[in-house]
Amino acid sequence: MNDDGSSQVNFTNDAAEDEYPVICGSKVVFSSDRDSPGNFDIWVANLNGSGAPTNLTPNTPGSNEHEPSCGSTIYASNRIVFRSDMDGNDEIYRMKLNGTELVRLTYHPYADENPQWCGDQIIFIRDLLGKAPCGTVSPPVCPFPPSCPSNPGTDYQIHIVGKDGEGFPGPTPPLARAVTCVNNVDPGPPPACNGTVDAVLFYWPSCHSDGAGGQDIVFSAYKPGNYEGRKIYRIPLCAQACCAHQFSDLGPTLTATASSVRNDYPSWSPGGLSITFASTRESVVVGRDWDVYRMNADDGSNLIPLTMGADEVSNEDPHWAETKP
């Protein structure tokens, strides 16, 4: 659809599940189980709808490939990053837009997901939720003090890794760097500790470069103690170590809604002025009906609904991109 919500077109019309669409120049890349119901691959199709979609990961039977992302730099615009469990655990991978040069970028015993290009780096979420006892971190996010954050966190945390998998220097394979290490552990007895009551959980990061070497990220997160809703926050991406050690380090809240409303899937416009996202704010049934909105990136003002479907109809996971002929 256009950036005002007009000219909405049903791009795929089949019995398969098609999800996580992104525009890559004159192409649309998405995840689909059209070849094997229940097993997802990464597919590419022409943006104008001509021709048949092509499976870019046909040689990964039994695995699931999701959440493709295309970047805006010369390098990233010709490459897709995505998550896959082809090696038995969700990790981040990279390949060319034609499906060649498949490279694994992350190596961790817990799931890595929600990858997005951030210049020539990849920002993503690492699932550390409940993987360590209260107040402890095991395994450590980074074994190289003093570069390591002092409080790596045991919840869903934002991480970043280079285009070739590089993070902190050291062992092979290299490790990704933690961007957030917020671990507000509730002092109560289990299961309150392990991220179920008083912790910050991060999801769906999106990155914008200002052209002068600076980068900001937006993401959705639960506020400690409120697990009925998610809000969208913005922080600068720091160059080294951890950018946020506690909840108060998070930048301004861009979505001011009731605690039961979920705001998710933020995506930065190419020019950096606007952010699209999905929200349940108009849902009659809490958490059931998602619609897509646009807002100003600096303060969340000028909120515009782009899809207002009937209740029980969900429009979510928007990605904003410039199209090329």
Description:
The protein has 325 residues and is an all-beta fold. The chain has no helices and 19 strands. The protein has a four-stranded antiparallel sheet with strand order 1-2-3-4, with no helix packed on it. The chain is globular. Residues 132-153 and 185-197 have low confidence and may be disordered.
Unreliable parts: 132-153, 185-197
Total DSSP helices: 0
Number of strands: 19
Summed over residues and divided by their number, the pLDDT gives a mean of 78
Task: Determine the N-to-C terminus distance.
Answer: 16 Å
Helix and strand sequence: EEEEEEEEEEEEEEEEEEE
User: What proportion of the residues is helical, as a percent range?
Assistant: under 10%
Main beta-sheet annotation: 4 strands, antiparallel
What is the multimeric organization of the chains shown?
A: single chain
Question: Which properties best describe this structure?
Answer:
single chain; 325 residues; mainly beta; 4-stranded antiparallel sheet
In short:
This protein is mostly beta strands and 325 residues long. It is built from no helices and 19 strands.
